[in-house]
Amino acid sequence: MTWIEALILLGVGLFTGVINTLAGGGSLITLPLFIFMGLPSSEANATNRIGVFLQSLVAVGGFKSKGVSVFPYAFYVSITAVIGCIIGAYFAIDIKGPLFNKILAVVMVIVIILTVLKPYLAHKGTLEIFTPRRKLLTIVLFFFVGLYGGFIQAGVGFLIIATLTGVHGFNMAKTNSIKSFVIVCYTLVALGIFWWEDQIRWDYGLTLAAGNSAGGWIASRWSVGKDDKWIRLILIVTVVGLAIKLWFFS
Asked: 66: which DSSP letter?
């Protein structure tokens, strides 16, 4: 890795650390970036998890320092997410590079569509609904969240946000706190699987992670009560360009 690549990864890491904490979707930028830097798709997918894990870990601490925490609920949904992640991670290892790139490009476009529609799909009420039936529903749904997260990660934050706000009506601070905790839990397991399969490029991953962690800490302490409109706009423009490049020119 050259020093120019290191600076790019640090800068992108800082930016996507903020994006991941406020809204999700940072991996839609970092994962294609690794591929464009020459990493095979499987290694890019695995290496991307280092930054995701450390940034989410720092974000959990940031939210806790602000008094935002939802336990033991966050722990319960993390258990099923971890189970799904194990299946998804092994599937990601076996898939061929060109097919993975096509799937990623399609996922990027779908997530961007959801990003555009997010203000119209958002839960409008402020009352939290926390019945046993709804808790059981989200525990089941988080198995599929973990399955997807273990496979590709990119855009998983939007799935978590949609699940938590749609089923329970959590505000964004609580939603992002739970999101960060769940991602820490299942990404730790995914990293173990990818490390065992020798898929991780630690130099690239740790450099990106340094920027991710700084961005996650800043955003977790700054984001309570803030609007993510400007984040979504920048994300849309960036990801559309990367998806086009990934589909036609990777």
From this structure: T
